[in-house]
Write a structure and sequence with these properties.
By secondary structure, this protein is of the alpha/beta class. It is built from 9 helices and 4 strands, in the order H-H-E-H-E-H-E-H-E-H-H-H-H. The protein is elongated.
């Protein structure tokens, strides 16, 4: 398990012990988790499961993997059979959908009052070759939830939520070599998003996507 807070690790350890996990390794850096898992495969004693947070506080030690998200992406690319449970306070639906659908995490558990209970359920589900997501973010995987937006749309909405005008958004995209960046393209994108989310205006649109946890 990978988490930079010892108190969180202790809670997770209690859950694993109650489920009779035979061998548990604790690390506080993503790089350490990656190296241990890589060594396990090289020694032909691979780990069955990784439980990781997404956010890690930066300190004096330089890291190749700066977040749990980067760790998950790298490990799933190299060892797709490795089971990974994300245990995080992050509850944005777009983030959950990205990690579960695109990067093939096996479970997503939200830290909270019922976090450890749900973590136990997630471990059971993953052990049985199933997936698990906490109820509060389950909409991320629901076919009924309208989430047909891409990374460009998310970036556009973030800039809009920061108070930038369409002209300023265009300049920002150009400065960061992101395309399309023309004013007409931005206007078309925002109009499409307003229609998709049934928003009356830009302010209403930002409020809706924030409520959905997309930004």
């Amino acid at each position: 398990m990978s988490d930079d807070l010892g108190s969180i690790n202790q809670g997770v350890l209690t859950v694993l012990e109650s489920m009779r996990a035979k061998t548990v390794q604790q690390v506080q850096y993503c790089d350490d988790a990656y190296l241990k898992i890589k060594k396990g495969y090289l020694d032909q004693t691979p780990y069955d499961l990784l439980i990781t947070d997404l956010s890690f506080v930066k300190d004096y030690r330089e890291q190749n993997f700066r977040s749990g998200e980067e760790l998950v992406i790298a490990l799933k690319q190299e060892y797709p059979e490795l089971k990974i449970i994300i245990y995080s306070v992050e509850d944005r639906l777009q983030k959950v959908r990205l990690l579960m659908n695109d990067h093939k995490a096996n479970a997503y558990v939200c830290k909270g009052r019922r976090g450890l209970i749900e973590l136990g359920k997630a471990i059971e589900a993953v052990h049985n070759e199933d997936i698990f997501v906490s109820p509060q973010v389950a909409a991320a995987l629901s076919k009924k939830t309208s989430l047909e937006i891409d990374d460009f749309d998310i970036n556009l909405l973030k800039l809009l939520s920061n108070g930038l005008s369409q002209d300023e958004i265009s300049v920002s995209l150009k400065n960061n070599n992101i395309s399309p960046s023309s004013l007409s393209s931005i206007e078309k994108k925002l109009n499409k998003l307003r229609i998709q989310f049934k928003a009356n205006n830009a302010i209403h649109l930002v409020a809706i996507v924030k409520d959905l946890g997309l930004i």
